[in-house]
Design a protein that fits this description.
5 helices, Protein transcription factor, single chain, VapB-like, mainly alpha, about 80 residues
Length: about 80
Amino acid sequence: MPLYIKDPEIDRLTEELISITKTSKVDAVRDALKHEIAKRKAALPVRERLAKSIAMAREAGPFAPGNHKQETDDMWSED
């Protein structure tokens, strides 16, 4: 869905960012949104940021015994 914003302050801020970054309006808005999303995600508690990794680890189950160093060496050997 297209984004239509009719707000003079938003337009002024966008123009200011464009003049600083020397980019298009679309790029300026995209970069600003990406920056804000990344900032908000980084502010999440560690538990929330790691929730997907924790779920994957639980699904994988406990550590499997074995000689993992040798298995890795065998996979990457150039025989």
